[in-house]
Design brief:
Layout (H helix, E strand, L loop, with lengths): L1 H12 L1 H16 L5 H10 L4 H25 L4 H19 L5 H9 L1
Length: 112
């Protein structure tokens, strides 16, 4: 019960983040994308810890993309094209997660 109260208070105190996340998810999902980079931009403008930003953005991106996958499946989209897209995007994702950024350089570039 205490956890639910804490979660509710956090959502109320950060209502603008909830609205921004919902708007980004809605806009990106309407064209079939996840919106991961936009989630990172929103989190960079908030007081979220730098180490938690990637995990939160990845989770939100996965939720939106999972919804799109179900819609594609329901509409009988060509599955071979879908599988090729998954293969190429997962290779790009693995490459991008191997990149390392200095926290100080990232924060200073965002503040300019």
């Amino acid at each position: 019960m205490i956890i639910l109260i804490f979660l509710f208070e956090t959502l109320i105190n950060n209502w603008y983040l909830v609205i921004l996340f919902f708007t980004v998810a809605l806009l990106y999902a309407s064209v079939g994308f996840g919106g991961g980079s936009s989630y990172l931009a929103i989190l960079a403008l908030s007081s979220i810890a730098f180490t938690e930003m990637r995990a939160i953005a990845l989770f939100c991106n996965m939720v939106v993309v999972t919804g799109n996958v179900f819609l594609f499946y329901k509409e009988k989209i060509d599955i071979s094209f879908f599988l090729k897209s998954i293969f190429s995007s997962s290779n790009c994702e693995i490459f991008s997660t191997s990149l390392s950024f200095n926290k100080l350089i990232l924060k200073s570039s965002l503040l300019r």
